[in-house]
Write a structure and sequence with these properties.
single chain; FAD/NAD(P)-binding domain; Sufe protein. Chain: A; 2 domains; 11 helices; disordered N terminus; 402 residues
Length: 402
């Protein structure tokens, strides 16, 4: 793979802005909390996601009933554990079909991820007359919770097994080729920062004029960061570099976390660009607070004027800061707004299946979207799809340790 495929011309994007974007995720001290809750203990998250109480009601469709048996018409309810909470589902059936599905109270979080399953999956179940429809990509546990609850309701009505068959999927069509200046594969932190940097060079509000396409296989941007909680550790004031004493202390901390092994140049680089990265995040509207901030204080002013070394900046929701502060998904709420305003072409539920090569240079990718397969041709390609940590062969090859 040619290195040229990942090098922007300096006229369209500064190297510094691009480098800062790529390391944004690693500069974050956010810690992912990916373990799903079990039983009723997850109800402790209720206050954090009360807004999910809005029903996602699905109207009955004209699809043919899936079963030949007879159910007892009526409305039924069931509650099942999801990712970090519980979902209560209401199902209405007639003698042979699922008439309506809605999600009532939900304590499942984070809402940024669960909301798509809560709103879209009930409709999909009714339209397909099946409890074996595809889960919402990226919201697997919440989707399974809803599917399980609907199945429970059907069984209460005497329709066990009637809707267990998976619906037939229509063949995907061949779509038209898309031309772009920049193609970003993967919508996690590094991919989003790269797309934003390509579209708005130097983070100065000036549109670069480039046609930027960002593809993400999940139903939302953010990768694993929306599941993260914590802060960005950075020296302050943010416009200055951290002291060598602080860098040394962080290297020692990383050594303790990684059995004595640490890439010192990488850690040093991450710490040096952390402040700049946090400032860029503020520029795109991410609300940040420092540890110990009181309610009503302005997070941007406090963060930029905070003079201790080091500082910790936490992304949070201005409207509900007591229960939601420190959550990584607030970063991507801001990214969604900026991508829309800047005209970045974001394609969700779209995965790259193969890189397109011209000799040793990457010039695009073959992709698979929700309804079609097609090619995206680009002058420059940024591969930020993640997954490196799960590839033992690549870790062995590229990790500079004995």
């Amino acid at each position: 793979m040619s290195k040229d495929a990942f090098n922007f011309d300096s006229k369209s994007m500064s190297r510094r802005a691009f480098a800062g974007g790529l390391v944004a995720a690693a500069a974050a001290g956010l810690t992912a909390c990916a373990q799903p809750a079990s039983g009723t203990a997850a109800s402790a998250s209720a206050d954090a996601s009360a807004s999910a109480d809005a029903s996602a009601s699905a109207a009955a469709s004209s699809a043919a009933p899936a079963g030949n048996g007879t159910m007892t018409p009526g409305s039924y309810t069931a509650t099942k554990s999801g990712f970090m909470g519980e979902n209560t589902v209401y199902v209405t059936v007639d003698e042979s079909s699922i008439v309506d599905v809605s999600v009532g109270k939900s304590t499942d979080v984070p809402e940024y991820i669960t909301r798509l399953a809560l709103s879209d999956l009930p409709t999909n179940i009714v339209e397909a007359q099946s409890v074996a429809v595809d889960v919402i990509s990226g919201a697997t546990f919440t989707s399974r919770s809803i599917l399980s609850a609907v199945k429970d309701c059907v069984e209460q009505a005497g329709g066990a097994g009637l809707f267990d068959a998976a619906p037939e999927k229509p063949a995907k069509t061949a779509g038209e080729t898309v031309e772009a200046d920049v193609l970003v594969i993967g919508g996690g932190m590094s991919g989003c920062m790269s797309a934003l940097s390509a579209k708005q060079a130097n983070f100065d509000g000036v549109d670069s004029g480039l046609n930027v396409v960002l593809i993400e296989k999940q139903a939302f941007i953010g990768g694993s960061t929306p599941l993260a909680y914590g802060g960005f550790f950075t020296a302050t004031p943010l416009s200055k570099q951290p002291t060598q004493e602080y860098i040394n202390s962080e290297i020692e901390r990383f050594q303790g976390l990684n059995f004595g092994k640490v890439n010192e140049p990488l850690v040093t680089h991450l710490l040096n660009v952390a402040g700049e990265t946090v400032l860029k995040m503020q520029d795109v509207g991410v609300a940040l607070m420092t540890a110990g901030m009181d309610e009503g204080e302005q997070p941007t002013e406090i963060l930029k004027g905070f003079n201790s070394d080091p500082s910790t900046a936490y992304p949070f929701d201005r409207t509900n800061w007591k229960t939601m502060w420190g959550d990584g998904y607030h970063i991507f709420e801001s990214f969604n707004v900026w991508f829309k305003s800047l005209g970045v072409d974001v394609r969700l539920n779209t995965k790259a299946t193969e890189l397109i090569m011209d000799g040793d240079k990457v010039v695009g990718a073959k992709v698979e979207g929700p309804d079609s397969t097609y090619e995206i041709h680009a002058k420059k390609v940024i591969l930020s799809s993640g997954g490196f940590a799960q590839n033992k062969e690549m870790i062995e090859e590229f990790t500079p340790h004995d």
